[in-house]
Design goal:
Chain lengths: 351, 335
């Protein structure tokens, strides 16, 4: 099974071969490194840029304007912050020109904590990004979705922000990417660049298929009747694990992987909350003005009379950074125990 | 009667044909009258904000005439700032669009009543949307230029901004990205230097004697020119463009220009003293060389004044966008 970095690489390869992707670029994206998470190794259209995030986003916008199909990477989401006005501009270009211009471009940038990344390699970007209209925003939690969402992103006529969680770059899924060989060692031999001299190496790509995950569609990863848990990215895994463990205690949680933050699958959330009457939103971004707060507001607005308990949010603490020490990181972002006890108490709460 | 001399003939550089000079004059006056009309509309409450380019016509008209106009990478991509109505008119644009944008009508061809005056956009001519944030256009120009270099042909990316804005990082980005060794890009970087930010004098903020000097460090060819003389501007632009078109390498052109009505309506939009008016200066030369008479030039101005007055009246009757229009075009609906 491919890990997420390999899945991204294979999607990009599919994109440059079949979807007209012309450029895959960013800091250290080209060879010899092929991305700090190895996610762009061996690609034909990849190249290294100057260390200039604003230049990277500007380049993507210019290429998209001129009819190319760029995929730009910002090495860590922590460094995409100094491009916010350009992101705002990319998002408003279609609207501002009354539909005359559109920008078919993908920006990918790895998000979140969990790699002991300290203060400047642990930021999330979901609240910030969902505050910028005109973009589609996706955030995979497993390699197959990472592949399928990226394939969709590369077919879009609008800017798409693709946010793989850093901590999940090495996780393996349970499903094969269509076309990927079953043996992971075989896959590795084909598409992982060797250590040492890479100047003559070329990837041998498997015959991949254009499998896509539609933008805006969530996925029920576990069905349940008692409480709805909505998450995405790294914390989705915590939620799925918690639900599994709580089943042994007789608590029956439904877990939704949102996958797309904009547009997002309100229908799926709505149907689930109508069934369970209880909902917990979980993500690792700082909790003040958090995307989960928007979801709670909408839940209260539209589903108030369906609710058996107040909707809850578990998110990162509102502190300026994530400290390097294990104790500090753990205290800052949701941990399995936090998720479990929140689901438990919500499931048992009586009106 | 003495034989008409060509304007610019006193210099050693080859001069321009009389019919081109007449055309440039016509367009310069047209652009000036348009801006005057826009200011008047603003002052009469037919708009909320004015910003534009009176004072820059001598540079902007030749620029518009030299652009390779069309859609796609075979043609020039234009990353303008908000003072370039004269360039747009010289490209053949109808002035009524600017009035519609000032009046923020539903018929505003650039933004449907959403954006400020002077914030043009026209995909059919590769004119990227003019934006309010200063200098961001410099970050995008290398992108279109890269597509053009790849495409082949002689299309170039032209990016324009003011002097104060060159302090932004995006200006440096453009210098860096357009001159990567082995990957030089066909970008014509233009700085129209009017000596001011809004109220901040450039010589209190900028170290280099000429902004163009900054390009030297990158091995980018550059020049500082007198942008208030349309003949000089035409010739220098032509030379710079020829270089970028042929060599597929960047060029930084700094043009010294006037700012005749201050920064924008935010600073009153009144005529300021002590700035050279490029149109008066040009008209003196045209008259002295016998190319146009005073009454011919007056006639041009009167004709455009009447035309644009009628347009303003027409635009006043046109519909405003509907509230529900806010939901249109958040995402692109086409293929
Ligand atoms: C990023 C940004 N900062 C500040 C402003 C406010 N602002 C508008 S025009 C201007 C001065 C620009 O001066 P210059 O670049 O010389 O261009 P000019 O208007 O003189 O042609 C400023 C500060 C802005 N529009 N964008």
């Amino acid at each position: 099974m491919a890990n997420m970095a390999q899945a991204i690489r294979m999607a990009l390869h599919y994109g440059e071969k079949h979807l007209g992707v012309t450029d895959i670029f960013g800091e250290d994206v080209g060879m010899p490194l092929g991305g700090v998470f190895t996610q762009t190794q061996g690609l034909e259209k990849s190249w290294n840029t100057p260390l200039d995030e604003r230049g990277i986003i500007g380049m993507a916008m210019g290429l998209a304007m001129a009819g190319e199909r760029p995929v730009a990477e910002i090495q860590f989401a922590d460094y995409v912050y100094n491009t916010i006005d350009l992101l705002k501009l990319a998002g408003n270009t279609c609207w501002a020109t009354n539909g005359d211009w559109n920008l078919p471009m993908v920006v990918m940038t790895p998000v979140g904590a969990g790699i002991r990344g300290s203060i400047y390699h642990s930021h999330s970007f979901d609240a910030m990004m969902t505050h910028i209209p005109g973009w589609k925003i996706v955030l995979p939690s497993n390699p197959l979705d990472a592949y399928g969402l990226l394939v969709s992103a590369m077919q879009e006529q609008n800017p798409v922000m693709y946010l793989p969680p850093k901590a999940l770059m090495r996780i393996r899924g349970e499903e094969l990417i269509p076309g990927e060989p079953e043996d992971q060692r075989e896959l590795s031999k084909m598409i992982d660049a060797p250590l040492g001299d890479r100047s003559k190496w070329k990837a041998k790509w498997p015959a991949l298929e254009g499998y896509s995950v539609p933008i805006g569609k969530g996925k029920i990863v576990r069905e349940g009747k008692q409480v709805t848990v909505v998450s995405y990215g790294r914390t989705l895994l915590l939620c799925a694990d918690a639900a599994k463990e709580l089943a042994a205690e007789g608590i029956d949680a439904e877990v939704i992987d949102l996958r797309s933050l904009w547009p997002y699958d309100w229908e799926m959330i709505q149907a689930s909350v109508k069934k369970t009457g209880r909902v917990l939103f979980v993500n690792e971004d700082t909790e003040v003005t958090n995307f989960g707060e928007h979801l709670i507001r909408r839940t209260v607005d539209e589903l108030f009379y369906e609710l058996l308990a107040p909707p809850r949010l578990i998110a990162g603490k509102f502190v300026p950074g994530i400290g390097l020490s294990d104790a500090l990181e753990r205290a800052s972002v949701p941990q399995p125990e936090d998720v479990k006890s929140a689901i438990r108490s919500l499931a048992l709460e009586q009106p | 009667m003495s034989r008409p001399r060509l304007v610019g003939a006193e210099k050693s550089a080859p001069s321009l044909a009389p019919d081109l000079l007449v055309r440039m004059h016509d367009l310069m006056v047209k652009a000036r009258v348009l801006e005057e009309r826009l200011i008047q509309m603003y002052k009469q409450g037919d708009g909320y904000f004015w910003i534009g380019g009176p004072g820059e016509e001598a540079f902007n008209v030749p620029l518009g005439l030299l652009i390779k106009k069309g859609q796609g990478p075979a043609f020039d991509y234009l990353h303008f700032h908000y003072r370039q109505s004269a360039t747009f008119l010289a490209m053949g644009e109808e002035p009524i669009g600017a009035l519609r944008q000032m009046k923020n009508t539903a018929t505003d061809p650039y933004s449907g009543g959403r954006n400020f005056a002077g914030h043009f956009s026209k995909r059919a001519w590769n004119l990227a949307p003019v934006t309010s944030p200063i200098e961001v256009q410099y970050a995008m120009a290398p992108g279109t230029a890269m597509a053009q270099k790849r495409h082949g042909g002689d299309g170039i990316s032209i990016v324009t901004g003011g002097d104060a804005g060159t302090a932004e990082g995006d200006f440096a980005s453009c210098l860096v990205w357009s001159s990567r060794p082995g990957n030089e890009l066909p970008v014509l970087m233009i700085v129209t230097h009017n000596k001011w930010g809004i109220s901040t004098a450039s010589d209190t903020q900028q170290g280099p004697k000429n902004i163009a000097d900054r390009a030297t460090a990158f091995g980018i060819r550059n020049k500082t020119i007198e942008g208030n003389d349309p003949v000089v501007a035409y010739q220098e632009l032509q030379e710079a463009m020829d270089y970028v078109r042929k060599e597929r390498k960047p060029f930084l052109l700094e043009a010294r220009v006037s700012r005749l009505f201050g920064h924008s309506s935010a600073s009153g939009a009144n005529m300021v003293e002590g700035e050279l008016d490029c149109i008066s200066a040009f008209e003196e030369k045209l008259e002295a060389s016998g190319i146009l008479t005073r009454s011919q030039m007056d006639e041009v101005r009167e004709r455009y004044t009447a035309e644009m007055s009628a347009m303003a009246k027409q635009v006043r009757e046109e519909p405003q966008p509907k509230p529900e229009d806010i939901w249109n075009h958040i995402f692109f609906e086409g293929k």
